[in-house]
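fyi for ur records
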Amino acid sequence: MSASGGPSLARRLVQLYGGLVLYGVSAGLQLRAGLGLAPWDVLSQGVAGRTGLSIGTVSILIGALVLLLWVPLRQRPGLGTVSNVLVIGLALDATLTLAPAPGSLWVRVPLLVLSIVLGAVATGLYITPRFGPGPRDGLMTGLHRRTGRSVRLVRTCIEVVVLATGFALGGSVGAGTVLYAVGIGPLSQFFLRAFALPERPERHRPEDRPEDPEGPREPRDTAVPVASPAVTAREVPDLV
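which gave:
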C-alpha cells in the first residue's frame, strides 16, 4: 500500500505483467488442448499457418496492426496497451515450447477448462491496475464511441469477423471456441472483482464534522472511500 492508502505502483505493475504472462500461458495451453481456440487466437493460428511465423509472433503483429486502427478512432494507448501487444505473444510462444501436446482426450478436456479459467484469472489481474486497455479492447470501445452502437453489438461483430477470417485461413474452431465464448465473460467478471485493488481512503478533518449535541463519543473510523487509480470492486462493470 502507498502512503496515501491506495495500491502501490509496484503492486499494480506486478499485477499487470503477471496477468499478461498468465494470459499468454493460458492461450498456449488452450492451443495445446487442440479443441478450439478463442476468436483472436483462431486468426493468429490461421495467419501463422499461412506465413510460417510462430503464433506468438503473429499475435504481436496483429496487436500492432490493431493498435494502428486506434489513430483514426483517437484512442490513447497506455503502458498496459503496449505491454499487452508484446508480453502475451512472447509468453504464448514460450508456453508452446515448454508444454507438450497431450494425446489423450481425458487430458485435453481438463487442459481446455484449465486454460479458460487461467485466462479469466489473467484478465482480472491485468485489467484492474488500469494501465490502459489492450489493443483489441481499445478497438471495441473506440468503435462504440464513434458509431454509437452498443458495446455488445460492436464486440460481437468484431469477433465474428475475426473468427470467420481465422477459420477461412485454417485456424482451429471447435468445442473449445464455444466453451470460451460462454465461460470467459462470467469467469472474468468474478476475477475482476476478486483482484480489484483496495480503495484509497480520504479522512475528514475534525473541523468538517457536524457537532454532536450529545457531546463527544468514542473515537471511530471516519474514512470515506473514494475512487483510486486502479479498478475497485464497486467499479467493475458487468461484462456483456
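The CA atoms of residues 30 and 112 lie 5 Å apart. thats all i got for now
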